[in-house]
Amino acid sequence: MSTDDDSLLQFDEPEAPAAIGQRAEASDPDLAWYCVRTPTKREHFAAAFLREIEGVEVFSPRLRYRKATRRGKVWWVEALFPGYVLARFNLIEMSRAVRYAPGVSGLVHFREKVPKVSDAFVEELRRELALNPDPERPETITVQPSLSVGDEVEIAHGPLQGFRGPIIHVLPGSERVRILLEFLGGDKPIDVDLFSIILPKRPTP
Fold first, then answer.
1. Do residues 62 and 98 touch, judged by C-beta distance below 8 A?
2. Spans of the chain, pLDDT less than 50
3. Do 108 and 84 contact (CB within 8 A), yes or no?
4. Which string of b and e fits 86-121 if b means at least 16 CB within 10 Å?
């Protein structure tokens, strides 16, 4: 079974391993990383249950970001791979325990084969996390918003709510941008809080 999201992951050629270890050495040839399917937005629940299984190592990276909605500024946390977590275990001995863990929908597979996820891919993600560690939110990457001159945006709240216009200047270090709005019979440059605008082409909750 394969979905469009599977392309975000790097799979090795599948082969069957054969030993157990809660936190085994990376050189242990009997353990491998696999992609575990979960219901969307329930990845952290599945990861918590999988961590309770002896012999299973879990990696469930998440993104944390702040964005503007029509309700104001909101912090969002979501899975880096929606609908999936990564787990390292012995496929032959632990497959059934993993498949039937609460919150787990199954393993990503292609016909009868369950491909491994590249060790190098997992380690690269862990290195990225280590660059900005957050003791209160392990396995979480905090992402700062990125907007560019020319982006068409909409003011999300305040007296100018609903007005749209292009960004004409990003004010560094102040979390503010200058946008060009058409009102009162002409185009007016307005400085606004970075988190009081939304991109109209993106869905808003």
1. no
2. 1-5, 7, 13-25, 202-205
3. yes
4. bbbbbbeebeebbeebebbeebbeeeeebbbbebeb
DSSP label at residue 195: G
Residue whose structure tokens are 């392309």 = 7
CA-wise closest residue to 95 among 71, 77, 114, 118: 114
Tokens of 47: 């990861």
Locate 35 and state its tokens. 């992609």
Using left for φ > 0, alpha for ψ between -120 and 50, and beta otherwise, residue 81 falls in beta
Residue 75 sits at the vertex; the CA angle it makes with 72 and 76, to the nearest 5 degrees, is 120
Domains and CATH numbers, the chain: 4-61+81-136 (3.30.70.940), 152-198 (2.30.30.30)
The DSSP output letter for 176 is E
Other Cβ atoms less than 10 A from the Cβ of 192: the count is 22
Q: Which two tokens stand for residue 37?
A: 């399917």
Query: What are 105-133's pLDDT values in tens digits?
Result: 999 999 889 999 999 999 998 988 888 77
Long-range contacts of 113-116 (CB under 8 A, 24+ apart): 113/14, 114/14, 114/34, 115/11, 115/12, 115/13, 115/14, 115/34, 115/35, 116/11, 116/12, 116/13, 116/14, 116/15, 116/32, 116/33, 116/34
pTM: 0.60
pLDDT tens digits, one per residue of 132-152? 777 778 888 776 666 778 888
- Is 57:119 a contact under the CB 8 Å cutoff? no
